[in-house]
Amino acid sequence: MTPAIQLTNVEKSFGITKVIQNVTLSVAQGERHALIGPNGAGKSTTFNLISGYMKPTAGSILLRGEEISGLRPFQINRRGLSRSFQVTNVFANMTVWENLRCAVLWATGHRYSFWKNVDNLPEVRERTAQILEDIHLTSRRDIPAGLLTYAEQRALEIGITIAGGANVILLDEPTAGMSNAETERAVALIRRLTEGRTLLIVEHDMSVVFGLADRISVLVYGQVIASGTPDEIRGNPKVKEAYLGEEAA
Ligand SMILES: Nc1ncnc2c1ncn2[C@@H]1O[C@H](COP(=O)(O)OP(=O)(O)O)[C@@H](O)[C@H]1O
Ligand SMILES: [Mg+2]
Question: Where, if anywhere, are coiled coils annotated (predicted)?
Fold first, then answer.
């Protein structure tokens, strides 16, 4: 089967600094794949390359077999890939409902127009309400997103990311800054919302990574040093030495 995402010999330089070197990475359709590695390894940059926010200096990036490097983020989004950001990216002054509706409108091909009451579009209203329910924020629907707790904002962001029904979801450190209990809830949410889709997730919490991922790739200094099942990664001496150390033991 054609992989959902295929990077081949991808490189990214900023000036003379090569931040991504010769990265080859394959994510199968329907797989939950975790990208791990130390700070500054190039994980967010890899997400920027896949989602079109940055252009690779060299190499090829395929989305379900089609070359996407060089396309704009919205074009890649239209082809069924959606990503969240490491830093929360919701509209703080808009209500929870408006934030989600905005994402649903975009996804359903509607353009905002001030003379139309978009809440009268039943498919938009229903889909927005459904996602709101899915992310457990129905009771918070009318408050500005900026007033949500941090964990709720991250849940909203996951909702926005999946609102478009994209098949391939990229989440960059969705549980960063959360308590253990919040992390557990967020992981359950991610697991449920990505059912039947492809997930590529950057995550620093190894219990989350090893509990959630079907496969794991390890990025160190811009290079993939290993890809495999959680057991293969746990037992890989190169990975232990370069990154996991005692953590996975
Ligand atoms: N726009 C940029 N310009 C210059 N250097 C950058 C830029 N974005 C990231 N970098 C550098 O690339 C390296 C990888 O960063 P990043 O992808 O954010 O790492 P990670 O997400 O794995 O922590 C870091 O050394 C960072 O300073
Ligand atoms: Mg990062």
Answer: none
What is the C-alpha separation between 153 and 150, in angstroms, rounded?
5
**Tokens, residue 100:** 């989600």
Cα separation, 88 vs 151, in Å, equals 10
Which architecture characterizes domain 81-165 according to CATH?
A: 3-Layer(aba) Sandwich (3.40)
Token pair of 143 as six digits: 């408050």
Ligand closest to the CA atom of residue 19: 1
In CATH terms, 1-79+200-249 corresponds, of 3.40.50.300, 3.30.930.10, 1.10.3720.10, 3.40.1280.10, to 3.40.50.300
Our answer on whether the CB atom of 41 is closer than 6 Å to any ligand 1 atom is yes
Contact yes or no for 169/161 (Cβ under 8 A): yes
pLDDT tens per residue across span 68-117: 999 999 899 989 999 987 676 788 999 999 999 988 887 777 766 655 66
Q: Coil, strand, or helix at residue 24?
A: strand
Number of the ligand closest to the Cα of 17: 1
Q: Is the pTM of this model over 0.85?
A: yes
Give, for ligand 1, the residue of 45, 55, 86 to mutate: max count of ligand atoms closer than 8 Å to Cβ. Answer: 45
- Counting from 1 in the atom list of ligand 1, the atom nearest the Cα of 37 is 22
Q: C-alpha distances in angstroms, 164 versus 81, 126, 180, 239?
A: 9, 13, 29, 36
CB distance 128 to ligand 1 below 6 Å: no
Q: 42 CA distance to ligand 1 centroid (A)?
A: 6
Instruction: Compute CA 164 distance to the chain's CA centroid, rounded to the nearest angstrom.
Output: 13
Q: Which residue has the tokens 């450190």?
A: 173
